[in-house]
Amino acid sequence: MSAMQVVVLLYALIIAAGGVMGYVTAKSTVSLISGLISGALLLGAFALTFRYPKLGFGFAALIALALGIFFLMRFLETGKWMPAGISVALSAVMLILMLWSLLRPNP
Q1: Using one digit for the tens of pLDDT, what is the confidence trace for 7-47?
Q2: Whole-angstrom Cα distance, residue 60 to residue 42?
Q3: Measured between alpha carbons, how far is 87 from 24 in angstroms, rounded to an integer?
Q4: Domain assignments of the chain as residue spans, ordered by start
Q5: Which of 43, 89, 91, 105 is 20 to 30 A removed from 65 (C-alpha atoms)?
Q6: How far apart are CA 55 and CA 66, in angstroms?
Q7: pTM score of the predicted model
């Protein structure tokens, strides 16, 4: 397993855990569902990286972009760093890493 694959796996787990945390702390069913769906999609991207690395990392990059845009809009509305601001920063780092992984000769 490559370092980039580990990064995708960790991101999937963090996003899913964030959805669970949103449900536990704020009783937000939307957070739970969206966090688990996003985490599952990222796990799918992780699985794809083993057979089709470019496709898997590209899919993870698209998910990171979508989550980054969503949380940026949320951060601009609320101004709260937790969870929106931190999620924007995490998604931005993920997007950069996934794009870098896509541009490398051998991911």
Answers
A1: 999 999 999 999 999 999 999 999 999 999 999 999 999 99
A2: 6
A3: 18
A4: 3-103
A5: 105
A6: 16
A7: 0.93
